[in-house]
Each structure stands twice: as C-alpha cells, then as structure tokens.
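worker-03 picked up job from queue 'complexes'. Input manifest follows; two sequence lines, order preserved.
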Amino acid sequence: VQLVESGGGFVKPGGSLRLSCAASGFIFSDYYMSWLRQAPGKGLEWVSHISSTGYTIYYADSVRGRFTISRDDAKNSLYLQMNSLRAEDTAVYYCARDWIPAAGLPNFDYWGRGTLVTVSS
Amino acid sequence: SVLTQPPSASGTPGQRVTISCSGSSSNLGTNYVYWYQQLPGTAPKLLIYGNNQRPSGVPDRFSGSKSGTSASLAISGLRSEDEADYYCAAWYDSLSGWVFGGGTKLTVL
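worker-03 finished. Artifact:
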C-alpha cells in the first residue's frame, strides 16, 4: 500500500489549492478515504472522508463549506479542493486509507507522508 | 481537544507505561477507541483499533482497553524506539466525524 500526496504549497489568505493523493497497492475503489491534517507543532485533526461509492461524505466543522473532497477511482486518486483558505489551515495534510466509521475496523490504517500547506500573507 | 490525554509520559527501558484518554458519552462512551503512534518526523501509524485490536506487525507489547468514557494504551517492556507521540481517536456521533486527543509525548529515560 502506498499513498502519495501532492499539491501543497504557499498561498495567501482567501486563496485556493487542490491536493491530490495517488494510491497504489490495493483496490482503491473498495475503500473509504480520508484527509487529516497536523498544524506545525500541533496534534492531529480529521478533515474529511468519502465513502467507497463517493455517496457519503463528511467534513469537520472547521472546513465545511470551504473544502470539497472527491475521488476518481479510474485514476486511483483522492482529492481535496480547498477554497477560502485561512492562516489556521496551515498544516501538513495527510491522506489515509479508511473504512466505515464506528464499526471497529482499522480506520486510517495507511497514511501518506503528507504535503505542507502554508497560508500566509 | 475533544478527547483528553496527558501531554507527557515517561518511563525507563523495560518498564510498563500507560497513557489515558478521556471522552464523553457521544464518542468514547458509544464508539471504539483507536491509538496512533507518530515517531519524530514521520506520518502517524495505526497502533490499536477497535479498542484492543492490533494490526499485523504491531508488537504485543502494545495493548489497548476501554471502559465507559475512558480508554488507555499500555506499553510493556518499554524500548527507546517507543519514544514518540501517541494519539487516541474515536468517532463522534453527533458531529458525524472523527475526534482526536491532543497527543501524549512519551519519553524513554
């Protein structure tokens, strides 16, 4: 299993970025996928997840209405469109393989190395 | 953080240490607890899922338990390579999302 994030960078407040996560080594279309983040020197924060079918999507309150998660099973890829970025969105963003929540399954069992997003004027 | 962890813990090699995680009826009280280990400069790694299940490859020195709205991670036979940040997590029903503890930095003296 390999997950590789890309698309991070430096952006001004109010700007946009699109993160990508390329997956390999497993049947991507069978799994939920999630984005999580970690601000510099801080703890982990779950951002969003998408079901294997793409029909069930959840967001953290801190990003709802600004971020959009999506997937392209033909490309084995997960995406996070981030709009109206704020300084507090500065973090390393990780994609992680996920499962149905609250079912006792090994949620977030594989993680990518992350991509850094810096929001600053 | 929604889940409460002590900011730090420590132990000597060979010792047994525990890290606590406290939540509420809406998260730990009704859902499973998860534990993640983050070694310095690396991505987190799943350590315990479903309260007390270890993914393949995780040594049995690591064990998890949950009772009511509290959970704990125990590490026995402490080793220097266990020095890391440890995070607990759980599904939060009323938020329809995952919540994490603030993390516990484990130091091996």
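worker-03 released lock.
The mean pLDDT of chain B is 96.
Strands of chain B lie at 8-11, 17-22, 33-38, 45-48, 62-67, 70-75, 84-92, 97-100, 104-108.
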